[in-house]
Amino acid sequence: MMGSQGGAQDRLFYSFNLEDHVPRDHLLRGVDLFLDLSELREHLASFYSHTGRPSIDPELMIRMLVIGYCFGIRSERRLCEEVHLNLAYRWFCRLDLEQRVPDHSTFSKNRHGRFRQSDAFRHLFESVLRRCMKEGLVGGEGFAIDASVIKADASRASRWTEGEAPTRAVREYLQALDAANPPAEDDPPEGPPGSPPRHISPTDPEARWTAAPGGPAFYAYSTNYLIDLDAGIIVDVEATPAHRTDEVQSTKTMIDRVERQVHLKPKRLVGDTAYGAAPLLNWIVNEKQIEPHIPVWEKANRDDGTFSRSDFTFDAQENAYTCPGGKKLNTTGRATAADTLLYRATNSDCAGCALKQRCCPNTPSRKIPRSVYEDARDVARTVCASPGYEQSRKDRKKVEMLFAHLKRILKLDRLRLRGLIGARDEFLMAAAAQNLRRMARWLGPKQGIGSAVAV
Question: Where is the Transposase InsH N-terminal domain (predicted)?
Answer without folding.
Answer: 17-112
